[in-house]
Specification:
single chain; 129 residues; mainly alpha
């Protein structure tokens, strides 16, 4: 970005969503549900930023990759967002912050799942006789 170029900011939309986002992530109990919350809130964010954006048209266009702390937007979604917003706004940084929060929650849940699996003894499941 060149000095003096206009930068678009969408932090106000991030602030509108962040409290609900964190609460919903906190309520998730399984690691495989974290990506769904990330995608839902990323699409809700884009709905606020882009005119005539329909969430239901893009639910398959975002991939959450928690092992690498990243997200991937399909070419179709990148095209819909537009090069200018992807390069001259804080939109990618905001989505990355959503991703980092989700990745942190995913790692917590994965660690809890591993501990639970470690302490389960085969043949001693609850209700088994």
């Amino acid at each position: 970005m060149k000095k003096g170029e206009k930068m678009f900011s969408f932090v106000k939309y991030e602030k509108e969503l962040i409290e609900d986002y964190r609460k919903k992530l906190h309520d998730v109990k399984r690691s495989d549900e974290v990506g769904d919350v990330f995608i839902e809130f990323t699409l809700r964010f884009l709905e606020k930023v882009l005119e005539d954006f329909k969430i239901e048209d893009y639910t398959e266009d975002i991939t959450f990759d928690p092992e690498n702390n990243r997200y991937i937007l399909s070419e179709r979604l990148k095209e819909r967002i537009g090069r200018e917003l992807l390069e001259k706004s804080d939109l990618p940084a905001i989505i990355q912050r959503f991703c980092e929060t989700a990745t942190h929650r995913w790692r917590q849940l994965k660690a809890d799942e591993e501990k639970t699996d470690f302490f389960k003894r085969p043949g001693h499941e609850v209700g088994r006789e």
